[in-house]
Each structure stands twice: as structure tokens, then as C-alpha cells.
Amino acid sequence: MIMLKRCISIINMVLYSWGGYVDKDYIVTKSNKLIACNYDLSLQEQKIILTLASMVQPQDTDFKPYIFKINEFMELLNVKDKSKYVEIPKITKVLMQKVFELKQENKILQLAWLSSAEYEKGTGTIELEFSPKLKTYMLGLQEFYTSYKLVNILSLKSKYSIRLYEILKSNLYKKCIEIEIEELKKMLYANEKSYNVYQNVKNKVIIQAQKELKNKTDISFDFTEIKTGRKVTSIKFYIKENKALNEITIGLASSEVAATEESIPSLDIKEVQTIFTKHNITELEAIYILKDSNGNLDLIKQCYEYASNKNINNVVGYIRKLVKGFNKPQMESKKDSFNDYEQRIYDFDDLEKKLLGLE
Predict the structure, then answer these.
(1) pLDDT tens for residues 321-348?
(2) 254 part of a folded domain
(3) Is the pLDDT of residue 250 over 60?
């Protein structure tokens, strides 16, 4: 099974380099800052951008021109009418004109999603490339990002459902978030006049997304209305994993981790995410930490408590080094199939010096 998964991964990477191959199980990874910003994309435009994002490999250090077979591409977008294939250049032209803003400390970055789109008649392919300025938010991410399988958004029929899916998915670890109505409308770019009436926002955006996410994605949500006086001013979202569709839950960005995924209990993954109280870590990062610590949750907790008192930019990388460094045996402790090791004693200051080469 492990060899099969690795072979599939290698084949997929080769197909990536050739272009023209898209799979619903590919992983979309985006910075949470990119997810939370305000932008206006149609349903088709979002699916194009997210399909393109799924082509980016975890090991990529730069964006590449990604080539799609148009028939396969349109099938993923659920376009049945082949006569609409000729509309692709029009769609990408409009998409390239969509500019949005990202705040960077005291700067405001204005950028477009695509740097180029090339369509050659008679070839049945289209080549797309992301704007280089998006690299910070899509490549080499270490923390505060969200990953999910492309299949989660492809069958959604509302552009607001896709946006709300990403926003809630990035906050799944919190279980509950409250968003002001006006802020929610800005994030979703729901600026039609009809949405000045809350009931329209509720019926056409929130309830529709609630139904779609429950039936078609790996998360679902309930919500309550928060009122100021008699007016609804905020929505409290209660986010949960959609166990009925758990088979399309977050994939892993590495064949090495995917090969060991089955041996790591999902409860342990959630426990690690819970331990990181001051940081938003993904399931993928939790799995890496579990692997490095050999499933030692007690060690992970103590390392995190130690790291929380320090000014560390990459807390996940720092803790991965810490948990790898302990090698002093302690008394016997309970073991299971994954957590098959002896507990250790922890001298963090001594270990940190060794990891930093100070002794």
C-alpha cells in the first residue's frame, strides 16, 4: 500500500510537469490572510483559480505556467455544453482584470490573480500562470494556512458558498467564530442592493451555503443570530467536520506523510492542534509533529509550553527540532501501536543549546 501511494505520487508529479492533468483530489493550499481578504470572483472564476492553485506542488519554490486540457478543465467546472469552450479566453481575460488588495503592515498591495493566460486555437489546451506577488501567500507556507481537497468546492453552485467554505475551513480549529454582518458581506463581496436586507443575506447566502457545505464538503455548520436591539448585527458560526463526507477531508501535501497517515489516530491530530493554543496549525503540520515525536503528546505539550515563552517566528519548525532531540529514557509508560516508545525526560535549555550548536 505504501509503495502504491508513492508510485501514484510520482506519476502525479510527472503529469504535473507535462501539464494537462487535473485531479479532484489535488490539494488547494492558501495563506489564511489570502482567504480572509475581500475579493470579487464569479463562481467560474473561483473554480478556475482554485483548480490552478491545486496544480501547485508543495515542493515548488516558484510558480510555473500550468497547462490544462480544456475538455478536462471544463468537466471539472461542470460545464456540459461544449459550445461554451470558446468562451474560455473571454473568461480568463475578465479574470485577469480582477484586482484585489492585501494589507501588509503599513502597505496595501494591489494585485491580479493571473500574470498570463495563453490559449492557442486547435490545441485544446490553455496555459495559466499566477501573479508572482502571490508567492508569499501560496508557496513555502509554514504557518497560518489552510489546505483542502479541490473536490470540496467543485460541485458548489454559489460563489458565496465557496468563499464561506474557505473562511469556515480556515477557522475549523476554533469550532466557533462570530462575524459581523457588514464584515461578512465585505469578505464575500455580497454588495448587491438586495443584501442591504438581512433576510436576503440569510436566505440566499448563509442558508444556501449551509445546505451545500453539508451535502458536498468535508465541513458543515450551524449558526445563531446575534442582535443589537432588534437588529441582527452578527452571526455566530459553529463549525464541525462533516463525518458523512469524511472521505474527502483534507489531504496531505507529501507522499511521505500520506504513507503513514493511516497509522496516526485522528484524535491525536486534533489533540496536537488543541495544544497549540496561540497558533493556528493545520492537520498536516500536526501530523509532521506527531511523526517527529513518535506520537508523544506529553512531549509535544511540554515543548510548546517552553516555546510559548520565546519569540519564535516558525514555531512549528522549532518544535519539530525540539521533539526530535530528546534521547534520554525515562520510566516505562503506556504504549500503543503508534506510540510505541519509552517516555523521556525533558531538559529544554540543554537541548536548545545543542540544537543551536552552542555546546
Answers:
(1) 788 776 443 333 444 444 554 444 555 5
(2) no
(3) no
Enumerate the H helices of 126-228 as residue ranges.
Answer: 135-138, 151-154, 159-169, 181-188, 198-201, 208-216
CB 170, CB 36: distance < 8 Å: yes
Asked whether the CA dihedral 168, 170, 172, 176 is positive or negative, the reply is negative
Of 347, 175, 345, 342, the C-alpha closest to 273 is: 175
Contact status, residue 17 vs residue 55, Cβ threshold 8 Å:
no
172 and 87 belong to one structural domain? yes
14-57 pLDDT, tens digit per residue, is 333 334 456 777 889 999 999 999 999 999 899 989 989 988 87
Whole-model pTM over 0.90:
no
Q: Is residue 251 part of a domain?
A: no
The whole domain housing 312 covers: 264-355
Identify which of 119, 100, 95, 122 has the alpha carbon closest to the alpha carbon of residue 110.
100
**354 pLDDT exceeds 80?**
no
At 80, the amino acid letter reads K
The pLDDT value given to residue 320? 82
Look at residue 259 and tell me if it is in a domain: no
Residue 99: strand pairing partners: 112
Residue labelled with grid coordinates 492558501: 30
Copy the grid coordinates of residue 354.
545543542
Boundary residue ending a domain (246, 276, 309): 246
Residue where the block lists cell 535549555: 349
CATH number of the domain at 74, please. Answer: 1.10.10.10
Q: In the structure grid, which three cell numbers stand for residue 96, read together?
A: 485577469
Q: How far apart are CA 321 and CA 317, in angstroms?
A: 6
In a domain? residue 317: yes
pLDDT tens across 253-290, in order?
Answer: 333 444 444 456 667 888 888 898 888 787 777 888 88
Domain count of the fold of the chain: 2
